[in-house]
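Please, structure for the following, as tokens.
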Amino acid sequence: MAKKVTTLFIRDTSVNLLVMKGEQVEKWASLPLEPGLVSQGLIVDEAQVADRVKQLFKETGAKANKVITALSGHDSLYRIITLPELPEAIMPEAIKREARRTIPTPLEEVYFSYQRLPAPRGEGRVFLVTFPRNLVDALVRTLHQAGVRPYILDLAPLALCRIPNEPRAIIVNARLEHLDIMVIADRLPQVIRRLSLPGEAESLEERLPLIAEEFKRTVAFYNSSHMEKPLDATVPVFVCGDLAEAPEAWQLVGSQTGGYVVSPLPSPVKLPEGFNPNEFLVNIGLALKELLTEKAGANFSSVNLNVLPEVYVPPGFSIARVLVPVGIVIGIGLIIFGVIFVQYNRAQTGTLRSNLVLAQNSVTQKQSEVAALGAQVGSLEATASELDSRITTMEERRATFYDDLTQIVSLAADKVTLSNVNDGGSSVTVNGVGSNDGIFSYARDLRASGRFSQVWISSISGGEGEFSFTFSLTK
């Protein structure tokens, strides 16, 4: 029997509900939102938005007890970080420390989630995402008011990245109020940029020059750190949102950005008559979290994580709830049986001999435990020796980082202003501000220094002559 999945996505301008049964769209509905109810992904009027959500579920008859939903992606950050190979037990704390070092926003203001990625032996790779707490809290409160229980939360850009069956692709999601540009390489979202578009432009056509310019800037940003395999004209470009509804517009974007072949983002699911997939692409990407299976030759995005904070995860079935009452009943029975058994044994003189044998066995067991403890002491001594070795290695890394820092700071002179330099062991993260030319000139100087095997420009944001940037330097 085909699995049924219900998805809900609240945008600034509308609420979209989609129910899929297997790979077939079964139900769909959308309600517009008045301006100001939701602003840049933040639900401002929770009561009114909750009423719209209730109305959608009532009209469609969809069940609200198990729903997949998404944040818009406003003020969210995405990173692929590299760590030493660590035991699973300490991985969460290590990722939290790395997030605190590499994410410019204080962790007290955001939630974060991660997914482990395949990595060479001795390394750990992690896809890390952070997103504002206030956006999540407002969304969950609103859904609870509407009687909706979310069990999976995603981010809209990641949902869109899940749709194309391509190992490398560029997605441009353009709407009147914002622009998303996503670069997928090796089935991973390598770059995700969201920009608010200027409100003074009245139409999509007036925004086309800016869209084309940001597209070229994103491609140049990615190619600067992937010269061995750049995004050339063979990489497909997919458009969605308002841009997909205007063929003459996205064809113009393709011609202005280097001859890329541009087409609407295709839906990988079966569509009923009268259904416009472009309005529900985020919902489709959310449904694929549950419906998409790994198939031979498939090239869908390998990032699929549930970012719903643990505090909001609904309680699941617990076997303890069943076993504890059963255990109590069994325990009471054992106690009663034990009392009878003891009373009976008191009448038997042969019990004394049995007790003597049990005592001797207990002594033997204790002797074995003492021997085991001695072996553990030896293991702890070996661990202490290993820790001494690691401390020596850390001292050597500190000396190496001092030399790296000297090189990084000296090359930045007269080109950019550095704000933060973080050492990650095998990589270094550099944050700062500067002009567009200064940033790329600085990147070239770092590569030419020969000290780093790879210089990757992780992000560039800002405008009007000054941009914030993040470099990832691989030693």
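The domain at 1-163+269-316 is CATH 3.30.420.380 (Nucleotidyltransferase; domain 5). The longest strand covers residues 123-132.
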